[in-house]
Amino acid sequence: MSILTCIPAYNEGKIIREVVKKCFKVSDQVVVCDDGSTDNTYEEADAAGAHVIRHDRNIGKGEALRSLFKFAAHSKNDIIVTIDGDGQFLPEEIPKLVTDIEQKNADIVIGYRFDDATDMPNYRRFGNKILDRMANMATEISVRDTQSGYRAYSRDIIEKLDFKINGFGADVEILIDAAKKGMRISEQKVTVIYNTGTQTSTKNPISHTGEVMTTILEKIAIKSPLKYIGIPGIITILIGIYFASNVVIMYNDTGYFSIPFTLVGATLVVTGLLLFFMATLLFSVSKRTKKN
Ligand SMILES: Nc1nc2c(ncn2[C@@H]2O[C@H](COP(=O)(O)OP(=O)(O)O)[C@@H](O)[C@H]2O)c(=O)[nH]1
Ligand SMILES: [Mg+2]
Fold first, then answer.
1. Residue nearest to atom 19 of ligand 1 (CA)
2. What does each C-alpha distance from 109 to 1, 93, 94 come to in angstroms?
3. Ligand 1 pocket mutation, candidates 34, 202, 209, criterion most atoms within 8 A of CB
4. What pLDDT does 289 receive?
5. What's the pLDDT tens digit per position in 64-77?
6. Which residue CA neighbors atom 2 of ligand 1 most closely?
7. 29 lines ligand 1 (CB under 6 A)
8. Which residue in 53, 80, 290, 66 sits closest to 164, CA to CA?
């Protein structure tokens, strides 16, 4: 089966040539999306023989993946691999990654990193764990590494994937969409390197995590607003009522009117009501969009 390797790249001029060359050894075609880099990423990728799609400004990883998938859908290859352009993943592992697709055991294979990624900084490991938990909650499937950009897709499903996010949320959004559509997802352990000699992250971990978390929360809220927003809303109202009734009981018994209890109770009731209305609103909106 023929393999097309897709590389999103933003300012990876120092290393992209090497990455592309290694990818060529194990794939039939290599395409790089230079997402408005301000360095020589374009020239380096081009010199290595890759087809380069160039965005004239930096739009984000999601948009880059969309450009790459569009290219992939028009190409004649059977398997689409995505790999980071920063050299953190080893292209030599592509044959291993695509095995499940070749054997028709999966539609998507996620390259997962964690088990032996001992030099992954602790704060990254922690952030990733939280995101994995949340993503698995949103998909109701269990994937070890929901943030990995090292993946293989069967070409047949590329066009069915629907994702709108522009930044780093795209990877997890693809996963959520794939799970929703019942695609078969498998996992393959891959090596990850943190000392590549150049920078391994384009964004600081806090804004990166924030970006991904917003995506997941949005998905969760839209998928089951009543369960994830409505029920917490009702519970909040009930706790508020508990505080308020205590105020009344206390006043009857002792004549003392507790202002702190009143404030807490009122805040909880109002917040709960807001959540509840938000949930019903989201519910009707999502029902309407599903119909369309
Ligand atoms: N197209 C595009 N690619 C990006 C952008 N930011 C990062 N990338 C690429 O996405 C891959 C993963 O990004 P990176 O910052 O290394 O993520 P991390 O290793 O998970 O912190 C790398 O190949 C980057 O070059 C962007 O704004 N646009
Ligand atoms: Mg990286």
1. 201
2. 16, 13, 11
3. 202
4. 73
5. 999 999 999 999 89
6. 61
7. no
8. 66
pLDDT of residue 128: 85
Ligand 1 pocket residue status of 200, Cβ below 6 Å: yes
The closest-lying atom of ligand 1 relative to the alpha carbon of residue 35 is: 1
Reported as a single tens digit per residue, the pLDDT across 19-29 is 999 999 999 99
**Cα separation of the two ends of the chain:** 37
Question: Is the minimum distance from the CB of 230 to ligand 1 under 6 angstroms?
Answer: no
* Distance from Cα 54 to the centre of ligand 2, integer Å: 20
**Residue from 72, 76, 2, 74 nearest 33 by CA:** 72
For 264, other C-beta atoms within 10 Å of its C-beta total 17
Contact between 167 and 211 (Cβ < 8 Å): yes
| Ligand positioned closest to the Cα atom of 15 | 1
Q: What is the pLDDT of residues 93-118, one digit of tens each?
A: 999 999 999 999 999 999 998 766 56
- From 205, 138, 208, 124, select the one nearest 173 (Cα to Cα): 138
Per-residue b or e along 125-150, where b marks 16 or more CB atoms closer than 10 Å to that residue's CB: eebbeebbebbbebbeeebebbbbbb
Q: What share of the chain in percent tops pLDDT 90? A: 68
Give the pLDDT of residue 201: 87
**Is the pLDDT confidence value at 138 over 90?**
no
Residue nearest to atom 27 of ligand 1 (CA): 60
Round to whole Å and give the CA distance between 110 and 83: 11
34 lines ligand 1 (CB under 6 A): no
The Å distance, Cα 169 to ligand 2 centre, comes to 15
Q: Which of 112-121, 176-185, 219-228 has the highest mean pLDDT?
A: 176-185
Distance of CA 3 to the CA centre of its chain: 24
As a whole number, the mean pLDDT across the chain is: 91
Question: Which of 106, 108, 143 lies closest to 128, judged by CA?
Answer: 143
